């Protein structure tokens, strides 16, 4: 069993080790984007089954939202690896952006405003 506190960096390394065992290696960015879109569609379908108005068909295999989110994460890591993107760095930059740009965008629990 893997460490619960595994970092994005170590997860990207694990995904790379998995991909490197195959002759094909990483697919092209366009193919990866198609696969990511497919996985996001499957996630949307599961969300719709569990929280929307469209129940599963009787003969459909059970899947979970967590499973589909895991697939989206896996494919995202594949794409990041193939494009030499460090997801930890990308995440940190995004959090800096959101913490600055959107600091007062929504009503805050602490009552602070941008006045």
Automatic annotation (TrEMBL):
The keyword Coiled coil applies. Residues 1-53 form a coiled coil. Gene3D superfamilies: MazG-like. Keywords: Coiled coil. Residues 27-106 form the NTP pyrophosphohydrolase MazG-like domain. InterPro entries: MazG-like_dom, MazG-related_YpjD, YpjD/YvdC. CDD domains: NTP-PPase_BsYpjD (cd11531). The keyword Ribosomal protein does not apply. This is MazG family protein. It comes from Enterococcus caccae ATCC BAA-1240.
